[in-house]
Protein: ATP-dependent dethiobiotin synthetase BioD
Amino acid sequence: MPILVITGTGTEVGKTVTTAAVAASALAAGRSVAVLKAAQTGVRPDERGDAEEVARLAGPVTARELDRYPEPLAPGTAARRAGRAPVHPQEIAEAAAKLATEHDLVLVEGAGGLLVRFDPAGGTLADAAELLAAPVLVVAAAGLGTLNTTELTAREVRRRRLDLVGVVIGSWPTEPDLASRCNLADLPEVADAPLLGAPPAGAGALAPEVFRAAAPGWLAPRLDGTWDAEAFRVRERPVPLKDAGTAT
Structure:
């Protein structure tokens, strides 16, 4: 798996923290890592972008960003409004392939979801993944509403005959509600792919050295971690309705 495409089921689901955790775990396993942000939006020239944030949290990775646009919009829209050239899927694929010749692992982080448009022709991260024939990791939200978006994303990955590595819950709540607890069993079912991790809420605010030490414990062995999905499900499982004293 020299190149891994990391997409979300939408915005603010924990893609960057997940990317940083995957990078930190790979570094801890002795692998060289590059992180490619396909297009950064909503960030000024003097602000730290997602790739740089991954490097801050994970450690010595090669961080590359193809372009950035100031408004927090879909890349294609943000590029048009800024009067700038868009980033095309072919450019993403070429940059990732070049990085893969120099690193053991290249993490390609998208913007928003899998089918967010990058250019006027409707090019997407999914198109870049197809050009690379790269596996895809889906980052999903924990709570109510995540099953539909996760299943739709998984179906599109498979429709394109790409390998869906698994699903990571991008931010596991400190006090998970009933929906979040039930989703531990339901997410891998609707995605037809394994649950591969659950970084805790607030992980991105940890000191980098703490983040790096903890990251392998948030991810499954498939992602160079030690996280046990079944043990996590058992620990977080919801109390059955009959055991909660509610009439059936």
